[in-house]
User: Fold these one by one.
Assistant:
Number 1:
Amino acid sequence: MFVLSSPSGAGKTTMSRALMAEDNEITMSVSATTRRPRPGEVDGVDYYFVSPDQFQSMVQENALLEWATVFGNRYGTPRAPVEAALAAGRDVLFDIDWQGTQQLQQTDAASDLVRVFILPPTLAELERRLTSRNTDHPDVIAGRMARARDEISHWGEYDYILVNDDAETCLNEIRAILKAERLRRKRQLGLAGFVRGMLGE
Ligand SMILES: Nc1ncnc2c1ncn2[C@@H]1O[C@H](COP(=O)(O)OP(=O)(O)OP(=O)(O)O)[C@@H](O)[C@H]1O
Ligand SMILES: Nc1nc2c(ncn2[C@@H]2O[C@H](COP(=O)(O)O)[C@@H](O)[C@H]2O)c(=O)[nH]1
């Protein structure tokens, strides 16, 4: 369970899309949200766009692995696709905030969790990125900037901290983390058999 968190606009979506485009072993967790779609966002691809009532039903049916209210909207991770992907031995990529990350940390799967926090090079650059993305009203951008310091204050709860200055460098760092975490002994499921076979036991 590979988590990317950051203040809004630092580059999680950019990194997630690049990783998904090149890595066949990882499945993106598509969140449900009560937020309205941005221009170009596709239901079922970027998010499942649901009504507040639908979201509440998902909560009551225990259909979400974690959920949180972020910037006045509700966001949550549908449980079934994540459990199916993990059961099939696939890695799962999450673009979620610190509240959701804390909730995943409290599940039985905590030892499967790899938490990566992405920082912007400066707050001014963060604001520039949110503005140049051209997807949100200035009031929304102001709200997200107002929350940025609070979001960043959670950096100490993550395993890896990256500064997304140059996008390609940041992507390379994410690739390196993923590679190293996949090589951990506990994640190499066929290793014991391989070693036994090599030793002729
Ligand atoms: N290293 C970078 N240098 C310059 N611009 C970048 C860099 N990384 C991302 N961006 C741009 O910054 C904007 C915000 O990036 P992105 O949407 O990936 O952020 P995010 O963390 O997913 O935001 P949110 O939490 O609001 O979904 C986008 O326009 C993206 O193209
Ligand atoms: N706890 C969760 N946070 C989520 C989830 N999906 C997205 N997010 C976070 O919300 C903010 C805003 O996202 P945006 O698409 O409106 O810009 C961002 O920090 C996301 O990481 C989720 O399922 N759970």
Note: The pocket of adenosine-5'-triphosphate (ligand 1) is lined by residues 6, 8-14, 129, 132-133, 164, 166-167 (CB under 6 Å).
Number 2:
Amino acid sequence: MLMMDVDNTPPRPSAAPDDVLIAIDQLSKTYVSASGAAVHALSRISLDIKPGEFVCVVGPSGCGKSTLLRLLAGLDGYSDGRLLLDGEAVAGPSRKVGVVFQAANLLPWMTVRDNVRLPLRVGGKHAPAADRIERLLAVTGLGEFGDKYPYELSGGMQQRAGICRALARDPEILLMDEPFGALDALTRERLNLELQRIWQENRKTILLITHSISEAIFLADRVIVMSARPGRILADLHVPIPRPRTFDDIVLHPDYARLAKEVRGLLNAQEHGHD
Ligand SMILES: Nc1ncnc2c1ncn2[C@@H]1O[C@H](COP(=O)(O)OP(=O)(O)OP(=O)(O)O)[C@@H](O)[C@H]1O
């Protein structure tokens, strides 16, 4: 008998394998509420994300999606488990990571260009790559708006500026928490198309949280479905639909219908679990 036929599965190595950029291993997070009660937000989440993958996370409200993103961004500490970015334990915010939240949070007294440039200045780079900033503005349709102030922009444009700012330092990983949640449906679809294009051009690794099943399937290589709190992973669904995708085409795709039904079924079961 060949030795390799024997099932002696090795223990998980301490560093993630080369083809894993984000390694989440048995990750748990418990908050202590103002009244002193323990709030179990995440329970033993395990998930590996490869470089260049586009992963969308859906789940019921309060299931710990934003918590997961904050832990990945190094903005909060975890209670148990392991969290590695590029083989290194997350111990705080990293230059490898850009974050986009639901509100663009642009500084109102700075122009769009200065807002986008801000992470480079804060990061101590004295000669921010002007070309790069201009290219980012152009790619996101803000080429003509660099000198404007945030109040002069629509909500969708502000959100695009927020994406530019997150990309300014050329991070390997982009974490997006409901980035288009506050926008009208058409603007949201347009920005989904733009994000698809930006991702295809740059191949960042993206983890995006959304409440929209169609947005998740449209954008993702994988859709992760989380349970009600404490958040666990219920399903990790591969989206085999070729890119570039359009909304008109994708809704007619049999895999779209199959995946949407599966995700909806899982989420509905969670809602009923609360009854
Ligand atoms: N700082 C905190 N202190 C105590 N509890 C918290 C804290 N932050 C979040 N929680 C709780 O942890 C749970 C998960 O919150 P989180 O914001 O991660 O959920 P979510 O899935 O992103 O929700 P939503 O979809 O509504 O944005 C919730 O019950 C929330 O009340």
Note: The pocket of adenosine-5'-triphosphate is lined by residues 31, 33, 39, 41, 59, 61-67, 229 (CB under 6 Å).
